[in-house]
Inverse folding.
């Protein structure tokens, strides 16, 4: 067990594909779906079990934007920056979230590990712009203020569930 990741479960996922190297991307997708990211230990295990170089696994993981090499928060916030959302002021929403979560530089995940902030090119809900998703749940016609209220609500719910 490392970083909440069960190597036994990782092995099961790899084995379910017959440990075939042509299934590399599918294996990585399944592991990430379960753990929200691919740790260095997981990438090394994949390389070992598929009998390929670690560099090859890392190159695939870094080539595709959907793969994350960093642990993500419990809540994945995606702010749409497509044309309709951008024109309807999605950038101030993104900035308000960054400020509220005290994210600096390239940091994407809050210090408490609760939130991860990302931008996406389009969420396909242009008529509802500006749009934000939290764990794939769509929140439409957002403002910086309504976004911060939503984050505060999620923090309260999370604290109540502990």
């Amino acid at each position: 067990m490392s970083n909440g990741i069960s190597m036994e479960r990782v092995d099961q996922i790899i084995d379910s594909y017959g440990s075939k190297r042509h299934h590399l991307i599918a294996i990585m997708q399944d592991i990430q779906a379960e753990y929200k990211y691919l740790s260095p230990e997981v990438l090394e295990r994949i390389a070992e079990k598929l009998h390929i170089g670690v560099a090859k696994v890392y190159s695939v993981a870094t080539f595709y934007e959907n793969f994350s090499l960093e642990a993500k928060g419990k809540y994945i916030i995606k702010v749409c920056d497509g044309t309709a959302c951008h024109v309807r002021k999605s950038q101030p929403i993104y900035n308000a979230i960054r400020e509220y979560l005290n994210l600096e530089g390239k940091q994407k995940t809050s210090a408490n590990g609760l939130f991860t902030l990302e931008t996406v090119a389009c969420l396909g809900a242009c008529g509802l712009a500006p749009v934000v998703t939290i764990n794939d749940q769509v929140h439409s016609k957002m403002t910086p203020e309504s976004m911060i209220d939503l984050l505060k609500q999620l923090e309260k719910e999370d604290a109540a569930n502990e």
